[in-house]
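Hey all, quick one. A colleague (J.T.) asked me to put the pyridoxal-5'-phosphate job into the tracker so the inputs and the structure tokens live in one place instead of scattered across chat threads. No bug as far as I know, just bookkeeping. Sequence used:
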Amino acid sequence: NDPLSSVDPEIAAVLQSELGRQRGTLEMIASENFVPRAVLQAQGSVLTNKYAEGYPGRRYYGGCEFVDVAENLARDRAKALFGAEHANVQPHAGAQANAAALMALATIGDTILGQELAHGGHLTHGMKLNFSGKNYNATSYGVDPETYLVDMDVVRAKALEYRPTVLIAGWSAYPRQLDFAAFRSIADEVGAKLWVDMAHFAGLVAAGLHPSPVPYADVVTSTVHKTLAGPRSGVVLSTAEYAKKVDSAVFPGQQGGPLMHVIAAKATAFKLAGEPEFRDRQQRTIDGAKIVAERLTAADTVAAGVSVLTGGTDVHLVLVDLRNSPLDGKQAEDILHEVGITVNRNAIPFDPRPPMVTSGLRIGTSALATRGFGDAEFTEVADIIATALKPTPDVDALRARVLKLTDGYPLYDSLENW
Ligand code: PLP
């Protein structure tokens, strides 16, 4: 019963330091968020002790009467939140959800067609070192070299050329909305199944601020920890037609025992995502990203050579193009780190620099919107970023401006020491 601080002071110190880092910096990694304390509680609970292979009412272990309640709540809430006919809430992470989606929709060796990794796609959509590229015949479409948008005529031409079993829509780094109806009609034309990976924009969909792929896709996967602000994990939604295939692809296809503590935390996150406060937060997320994009391109603030791909954003992230800047992605990431803003460097389409350096930054606003930021705070953040990307910035002065913001929006102030 001893607390972590006495059982394992070294790990307690890591937790304490990480809490301090999260409190004292501005988190702008587009795939991150801050979960509510209620989600932390569900996840850090006695449900971690329980084995529950199988599904509610059909388990391979005894004693599942309470975890069944949690999983049913998570499934029902996910279905209601997204208007889906079926939900599987067991995937440990987004990658497992995606492996299950492909397993449910295709056979090893089949052709799949997804957005190229270097153009904003995800590695589980066919990257050659990933299971998706090793097990399937992976083909891809990219973005247009002028507009940086996914061009549906190109997607259609590629689909007609490759005749994929599965057409994939979804991204990790793309600042605009996809046309799901057009993807559906191309899938129908070539006899493909449509899988949408909404990992990044699921929170916006839940809030009704982004078109939903659910009415168009056979299978929709998502992570729960990005804009959705739940525990680090995945979920698969599908039509009733694919329900059985999805369930057997997740278990026993991809996984063993489900993480019942995480499933309970997912249930809580799905509940919160249906509330008005969540919608307000997603609106501030999108508004904040638009402010960052505007300030990083406005004549009075912009640093030389800094621009924003597609000229703006419709979602929670901005892709900064540094191809004409003296800074590369790594240098820009480092200078922002010094002032206390955490972002990730990101290859942009047609990037001339190597992947460990890159010519881009991916900047997201979800975590700061969760922290409470609105237009005024995002304007200040954008001006700090714009100034930091200019030659010889005053790092101490910028760090002080960051601390003023973090002090104004305390994080997890009810959490005690470990
Ligand atoms: N799908 C997309 C579009 C993603 O961006 C990510 C994460 O970056 C994943 C899937 C994988 O999620 P995880 O890291 O939980 O495996």
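Adding what we noticed when we looked at it: The first strand starts at residue 26 and ends at 27. Residues 276-295 form the longest helix (20 residues).
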